[in-house]
Specification:
The structure is a homodimer of 500-residue chains.
Chain A lengths: L5 E4 L4 E4 L7 E6 L10 H19 L3 E6 L18 H9 L3 H18 L15 H13 L3 E4 L2 E4 L1 H6 L12 H7 L16 E6 L15 E3 L3 H11 L3 E7 L3 H16 L4 E7 L2 E3 L2 E2 L10 H6 L11 H9 L7 E3 L1 H23 L10 H16 L4 H20 L9 H18 L5 H4 L3 H22 L3 H14 L1 E6 L2 E6 L1
Parallel strand pairs in A: 3-4, 3-9, 9-10, 11-13
Antiparallel strand pairs in A: 1-2, 5-6, 6-7, 7-8, 11-12, 14-15
Chain lengths: 500, 500
């Protein structure tokens, strides 16, 4: 690949040439789910987007260590994180469960959903509770370096010191410490322990009835929820690594505080490039459960929601997500999903048709055109992972593929090498990079496989019936198939079928 | 359920009445896989057996907290665990991977395999690396209680003290400390640090190049591999809980050392009942990779092994495992698997036939017989989870079900209530307790669902062809279906089909 990858760095607000810290290797950390409830669709979008990025980096030949954490402790309710009740422990008490039992239930559910969306497992999936020792050591380092102070068994990060030293607290989110001051007027419990309103807890003394608790030098307590990502990214990727990703909503306070912690403990910001996915909207508005303007991933798949006319296959949903750039808002509407379903099918049909084409010549008139389009598709990906534009390039070739299949363009227009390149390009984009699966081919159950053979038989019988002018049988076949969920289409090449 | 559950307790060598420590609740800990390589088939047997036990306890109405750990650090090579190289770190160095990357790869693979075998996720699946703090605290407790001593940064458990106090080191495995003395003549590194040969490491100082390492009061090191189970079972189930399970091969040294650690740290043995699964043999001999007498779970499913004539569906393999009692050796042979395949199909066919039966009477002559057999099947399960005998009871009813279906026994022989009980019993055993899935019904893909409708059409066309004496069409249908993997069977009720 001659082209160079450029990525938009949220830290600088610019597209920058991507240059890994160690040639050939990439360390990438993405903030994972909090496992105290079912994963949200917006989170799914973030993880599918980063899965696509990860797949593209692998496609480029990088050895990527992709770390995505599981937050199974310490994610606190409220705009500021101090003193608010720990969500995990709250749910556990309500359900009369051990917190780790809740975490296990939703971790399994999360993995199931990620599997439906065909995301690759990250290289490492560290758990917050699995790194308490590392977090305690990081708190100690922060205190030792003068950036943390202890109040009644809890430990707070001193943001004012960072600002006074010109080390930029607020740079990523573009907030000024004066604004932060005025924003945090809440009278939450323990608020008074802070020396400055924008300070945040890095170790929290547990209430007597708090279920998740560990011994530490300061109190029996639990880590502040920003701390885990600093501790785990440092452990598995080092003090300074290539890419840190997450949803837009994590910029502040989470990522800002992560940076503060890393500077406090390791004297440097964790990542070279910060990448953030944008929001998922529904019908043009922010999803909100309380307003009724929301849908779960499961509802979207089953169709069990009044917001959509039918259920959508996870691959259609993934295609829908890829149709939008990761830095753009993605508006989920029934119309857009139905359109994505058609687009997905059109792409898959074209790919199958492409694979059926046989070249008859060494070179052809269309070769240069095909090569330009392939080159352009990769150029779009190299421009900050522009999946919608890369997809558009593939769709530019689809009419040609269909014309070749139908004989409207003769096969002597496409040389063998160009055809092979085109097949490889479609395969790489559809399966390796976009992470899609062909529903018509992926039915892995024995039943789905048998269907192909049985349909060959049915199409044969129908052909014979039509040749015999036995319209009764021919009609019966069409109607029964429709009832079974199979549609027959006639073309020059003979009849074809598809699942409705 | 009037009957009482009895379980064989490895600690006492007797079948005992099962009485949970807290009425209605059960805490169960099972030693899970070490994730530095693909899961062995023998381990799969253990986990499927305990999954079946777990399912039966749930069926009895207990609220079960089932903890099965993931050993992602500290499992050491060799007969004794001191000084031998840490398997995880070794593999990681060979593959040039971060140890947790290896652990993640094989954890994902293990979960995939457990899903194929339709095992339920445990309630909690704690990782050894996720509980270093708890393990360090347990080592400290053991030292404080006088059962541990420090040598050059490593910490050892003092087994002699336990024996001298009459606290029974060796009780579970039936070994005497004098035997242990003569067994451990190896000149392994650090062996000399032990005060007594049967002592074992609970914290090990890491070599300079050892990848997995944590700070501790004694050294930068890692926990001895027996320690994790003591620390995690205590954390999630308390100092004393109901059931501790594992493979037979773990009795010594692993479980013996676990008991020692718990006595040392908590002054009591961890579990009331110890349950151990027996070995999986192949062709009558112990599986051994070096002898070529071994097969992986994947090979067993794909058929990619010269030891078997074909691949077997995971549900057939699960059925095969259930056909044997968990305390018996299970001999894997091609003949036994082929027989299991037939048996599984016969059971599933019978269950589908049973569900199709409609009662025509309030009570019938067979009712008492049916009720006795149901009762007997549960009695077998209550006799130390005797799955093969319970299965045999179900098979006693199968000929009756088939006769009822074929009209050889009239439906007025079975009352509505008895029929409902029988349907419920079959459903409970097959799906809830044995954890089997009906292949013919479980094809969840759209393609598999469409096949049913299309096959109705094909059977209709075949019927018409036969009525018209159009043997050419009729034969063509039979042959094409066979090629597609579908077999047609004619019965009094009309033609039926099944996937070959």
């Amino acid at each position: 690949m001659e082209q160079s990858l450029h990525v938009y760095n949220s830290m600088t607000g610019k597209k920058e040439l991507f240059e890994p810290l160690t040639a050939g290797f990439i360390g990438m950390y993405v903030c994972g789910p909090t496992v105290y409830s079912d994963v949200h669709l917006g989170n799914c979008r973030t993880f599918v987007n980063f899965d696509t990025l990860y797949r593209y980096l692998l496609h480029l030949g990088y050895k990527v260590r992709y770390v995505r954490n599981i937050t199974d402790v310490g994610h606190l309710v409220g705009d500021v994180d101090t003193g608010a009740e720990d969500k995990m422990a709250k749910k556990a008490r309500l359900e009369q469960l051990e917190p780790m039992e809740v975490a296990q239930k939703y971790t399994v559910g999360f993995h199931d959903m990620m599997r439906l969306f065909n995301t690759k497992s990250p290289s490492i999936e560290p758990r917050a509770t699995g790194h308490i020792l590392e977090q305690i050591e990081m708190v100690q380092d922060i205190i030792d370096n003068g950036y943390g102070y202890v109040k009644n068994g809890s430990v707070y990060f001193n943001t004012r010191k960072l600002v006074e030293e010109g080390k930029g607290y607020g740079d990523l989110s573009g907030r000024k410490i004066e604004d932060l001051l005025s924003e945090t007027r809440s009278d939450l419990k323990n608020q008074s322990e802070k020396e400055h309103p924008s300070d945040f807890a890095i170790w929290i003394k547990a209430d007597e009835n708090h279920l998740m608790r560990w011994n530490s030098p300061w109190s029996v307590g639990f880590p502040g929820w920003h701390l885990e990502c600093s501790a785990m990214s440092t452990k598995y990727l080092g003090k300074h690594f290539d890419i840190h990703g997450g949803g837009n909503d994590l910029k502040f306070p989470h990522h800002e505080n992560e940076i503060a912690q890393n500077i406090g403990a390791c004297s440097c910001a964790p990542a070279k490039y910060w990448l953030h996915t944008n929001m998922l909207l529904m019908n043009g508005k922010k999803m909100s459960k309380s307003d009724g303007n929301s849908i779960t991933p499961t509802e979207l798949i089953t169709g069990d929601s009044h917001h959509i006319s039918k259920g959508f296959h996870p691959m259609v949903i993934r295609f829908f997500m890829i149709q939008s750039h990761y830095r753009s808002t993605l508006d989920l509407t029934d119309e857009a999903l139905l359109a994505a379903e058609k687009g997905f099918k059109r792409l898959m049909d074209a790919n199958r048709a492409l694979n059926g084409l046989q070249s008859t010549t060494e070179s052809g008139a269309l070769d240069a055109d095909i090569r330009d389009t392939i080159q352009a598709a990769f150029a779009e990906m190299n421009d900050d992972f522009n999946t919608p534009k890369a997809l558009a390039r593939l769709f530019e070739i689809v009419p040609k593929i269909n014309s070749l299949k139908e004989g409207k363009i003769k096969m002597d227009q496409v040389g063998a090498a160009a055809l092979a390149d085109l097949k490889a390009c479609f395969h790489a984009f559809i399966f390796d990079i976009f992470g899609l699966e062909d529903q018509a081919e992926s039915g892995s159950s024995t039943g789905a496989k048998a269907l192909g053979g049985v349909m060959d038989l049915v199409i044969d019988i129908r052909k014979q019936a039509r040749a015999d002018k036995d319209w009764a049988t021919s009609d019966k076949i069409r109607d029964s198939l429709k009832e079974a969920g199979v549609q027959i289409k006639d073309s020059k090449e003979g009849a074809e079928w598809e699942l409705i």
